[in-house]
Amino acid sequence: MITQDERLEGLKFNTSILEDRLGKLEYERDMARDQCYEREGLLELQTRSMKDNLIFGGLGETGLEENTELVVKDFIKSELDITKEIVFQVVHRLGKRADGKPRSIVAKFVNRKDRDRVLNAASTKLASKRQFSINEHFPPEINERRRVLYPVFKEAKRNNRQVRLKADKLFIDGQQYHPPPPQHHPDSNALLQEDPHQPQYPTLAPTRMRPDLRDQFRHTGVSG
After folding, report:
1. 67-88: per-residue pLDDT in tens?
2. How confident is the model at residue 203 (pLDDT cuts 50, 70, 90)?
3. Fold of 52-137
4. What pLDDT, on a 0 to 100 scale, did the predictor assign at position 28?
5. In angstroms, rounded to a whole number, what is the distance separating the alpha carbons of residues 202 and 178?
6. Structural domain boundaries of the chain?
7. Does pTM surpass 0.85?
8. Contact call for residues 43 and 142 (beta carbons, < 8 A)
9. What angle in degrees, to the nearest 10, is found between the helix axes of 4-49 and 140-158?
10. Above pLDDT 90, what percent of the chain?
């Protein structure tokens, strides 16, 4: 017959196992959260480094000896009606396109005001010239987030809401919009729900008690 002391010792043993498992899960959670913060920090640095850049699309290539900076300057004057002399830090073509169209051009402006003037002019001057495009430059991961947000942005604008898409953040009527979590992770670990805007994680598998301990302490109310 099992004594009360033996029951207590068994409960202590099982509790220590659960506490050890919980400690490991909390450690893994903290590591994942730190890695997320680190990745977001690197993305922010990348985004800042590209803040003076614009990507020009649809500008025809003129050959191996092409002066890419001159191509951009001529385009700005002829298509955007901006005659002010603009200075660039660097201008270059991106990699070859699979569709055979002209490679896009990345231009890094010396003056932020010049960059903004060109971007603002593009919204009106190129509205009827779909073969050309001028866009802000972002890391691929930020572009993917913007792709998800853009339909919401268009819908809000269609409904005459005040909208602003800044990098990977969408603001509607002054409030930041947060997209719903991915559908393939419908549940989240309760330990990670302190901040609803933290990344979502799959539900962790429940801890199972050893069969011998389950049989031994079934009448104590502990189950696995």
Report:
1. 999 999 999 999 999 999 999 9
2. very low
3. Alpha-Beta Plaits (3.30.70)
4. 77
5. 19
6. 4-48+182-219, 52-137, 138-179
7. no
8. yes
9. 80
10. 53
Angle, alpha carbons 201-206-211 (nearest 5°): 160
Q: Identify the sign of the CA torsion 104, 105, 109, 115.
A: negative
Q: In whole angstroms, give the CA distance from residue 7 to residue 217.
A: 7
pLDDT value at 190 more than 50? no
Six token digits for residue 159: 């409904």
Q: What are the φ and ψ backbone dihedral angles of 177, each rounded to 5 degrees?
A: -90, 130
Residue 193 pLDDT > 70: no
Write out the chain in H/E/C secondary structure. CCCHHHHHHHHHHHHHHHHHHHHHHHHHHHHHHHHHHHHHHHHHHHHHHCCCEEEEECCCCCCCCCCHHHHHHHHHHHHHCCCCCCCEEEEEECCCCCCCCCCCEEEEECCHHHHHHHHHHHHHHCCCCCCCEEEECCCHHHHHHHHHHHHHHHHHHHCCCCEEEECCEEEECCEEECCCCCCCCCCCCHHHCCCCCCCCCCCCCCCCCCHHHHHHCHHHCCCC
| Token pair of 149 as six digits | 């947000």
Distance between CA atoms of residues 16 and 5, nearest Å: 16
- Dmax (CA) for the chain in angstroms is 97
